[in-house]
Amino acid sequence: MTRPHVLLEGAGAPPLLLLHGTGGDEHDLLPLREHLAPDAPVLSPRGTVLENGMPRFFRRHAEGVLDEDDLRVRVDELAEFVTATAPEHAGSWWAVGFSNGANAASALLLRHPDLLAGAVLLAAMVPFAEPPAADLTGKRVAVSNGRRDPLVPAAQTGVLVAQLRERGAEVVEFPHDGGHGLDAGVLPGLRAFVAGRT
Asked: In 3-state terms, what secondary structure has residue 70?
């Protein structure tokens, strides 16, 4: 399988799988490497679905209404791509996703838990109304959503956190007072979490 992507080697840890938001590409989240795990290996693929010309990782029926059937297919394809592109990091990846990419990251964690060690979910929604019964024991997940996010109300963030914890994941929330975006103020905490210092 091929798709546009950036693959960076590094001696740091953990390896980062960067998943952009709607309209982004494989370069969008590369600056997060410096904030989360400098010098870590990076794989940053581009989503293969286009919505009005904007790359995404899966389709949606409307804003805030995910196409779960397409999500399953696309996440399985993504898992195959990641495994084929950098098999040496299987099981140790941290999926770092924003918005559409965060939803793909949590879906990847739920459908292919053996591929990931953890995830950083930024502006994330609930990917599946009825998520699979995955065993996420030992997986570490950071969720950073805005308290004023018009797309992801606090109740939905709570559902996502609960679904992951019910499956054994260690989940820590890093909320911020903004909307549907990434707040730079949470980055030091996320870096410490990814490094295992919190």
From this structure: helix
Q: How many CB atoms lie within 10 A of CB 189?
A: 15
Q: How far is CA 4 from the centre of its chain?
A: 18
Is the pTM value of this prediction over 0.90? yes
Q: What whole-number distance in Å separates Cα of residue 57 and Cα of residue 59?
A: 7
pLDDT tens digits for 143-195?
A: 999 999 999 999 999 999 999 999 999 999 999 999 999 999 999 999 999 99
Residue type, 12: G
**What pLDDT is recorded for position 198?**
73
* Enzyme catalytic residues: 99, 149, 180
Stretches in the chain below the pLDDT threshold 50: none
Q: Distance of alpha carbon 102 from its chain centroid, rounded?
A: 4
| Domain parsing of the chain, residue ranges | 5-194
> What spatial distance separates the first Cα and last Cα of the chain, rounded to whole Å?
37
Q: Long-range CB contacts (< 8 A, 24+ apart) of 187-193? A: 187/35, 187/36, 190/35, 190/36, 190/120, 190/142, 190/144, 191/35, 191/36, 191/37, 193/120, 193/140, 193/142
Assigned CATH for 5-194: 3.40.50.1820
